[in-house]
Amino acid sequence: MRILLLCSEYEGLIKTGGLADACRGIAQGLVDAGHQVTVLLPQYTNLYSRPTGEWHSVYFHLGGRPLGCAVRQLAQASQGGVDIRLLEHHDFFHRERPYDDGDQGYADNPLRFGFFCKAALEWCRQYLPDVDLIHGHDWQTAVTAAYLKQHYAQDPVLGRVPFVFTIHNGAYQLTAGAEWFGKLELAQQQDHFLNMLEQGIRYAAKVNTVSQGYRDELLSEPAANGLARLYQQRQADFVGILNGCDYQQWDPATDLTLIKNFDSTDLSGKVACKQQLKARFHLPAADVPLMVAVSRITGQKGYDYLIPALRQFLALSKVQVFIVGSGEQHYCRQLYQLQEDFPAQFRFFEGFDEALAHQTEAAGDFFLMPSLFEPCGLNQLYSLKYGAVPVVRLTGGLRDTVIPWPDQAATGIGFSDVSIAALLSALQQAEQLYLQQPAYRAVQLRGMQQNFSWQSSVQSYIQLYQQALTEQFSRT
Fold this sequence. Notes:
It is built from 17 helices and 17 strands. The strands form 3 sheets. A 9-stranded mixed β-sheet has the order 3-4-5-2-1-6-7-10-11, sandwiched between helices. The chain has a 6-stranded parallel β-sheet with strand order 14-13-12-15-16-17, with helices on both faces. It is α/β, with parallel strands linked by helices. The mean pLDDT is 95.
């Protein structure tokens, strides 16, 4: 198959979260499976310095306005056989941040990404006429599905091409006033506003999200954020496909960022990694469990109840905690206060550093992930591989990938209620498990032996593509 993958992030080029990792994992997995993959994403400011080769001009009208752009091919060094194209429009995408100014989303985001979707289709129609299927990711690509149905149904190239739509986080929808239906040349529904994500769910040939657990949660409120009825209507075409883990980048046996490598047969390197991290951040070299977290510092990640639970837990135990991340400042201030109040037990590093993220996973005895919701989650997959036993709220992809203690096949600690008491109980359970070293080691080693590679996930995507193509063929 020849597949056009539309996304707003791609790991190694532009990344604000797990969307970038997933898009790269899917694209690379498809190429490795023998398919031809072209990835198209906006050319943001940080990508202007990248060497490019072949380029095309694309012109069209949108909302009565003549618009145009250039589509440039990224030089192929280190792209793993994936054909990456950058869509250049200076006014729309030559900005320091992809979606917002650091405080609020750009006011013209509907136009920016509506333009991206229309331009992608016009470029594809002219320069990729042998495309078999288009695969879009999240709200930034969602109106592509509507354009295909409403504008290109009779087009000799695009009229036969199905659109598969992946939802990485259903909470991110982008809504705009009803006037945007006209501005983007979209058929208006009865709604008083445009919901970009809804356009993808409504019009795509197939819809998926990134775990079976999250797929099931989206069929009802409040998880669906107002779209449960639409998910229910599309239920026959709506599936869950778990994200994979890129073990070429996330393997403690080969990870070049670590002071000493390790695997499930020899954990001496993990001991060295723990000692190094504690020394770097001036935590006492006490023989106590080290609990770590690497995440965005947001409400979604559970910080409303993680912080008070940690305050109670640290006062009662000798455990040490290290958190890496950036995000909402009112949470960051509380984390700095924990550091002041528990100087021998708690450290907070504000910011993101890729090498430090790897080193933190390698150093941790436990990894904290008490998310309110988690479509898939990647850090629990990294943690399993790196022997940092996950402590997770059993939601979405976390429920699908972590087996909670005391199950005989346990790979982590799990809890369900969104409450300080439930999380505190899970933290105490983790501490008690650590004191039972044979039991802790068994849980840790089972986790390290899990395999969530992209190979299995990509095969599920290929099956979904084939279903979409078969149904499209039967209609034409």
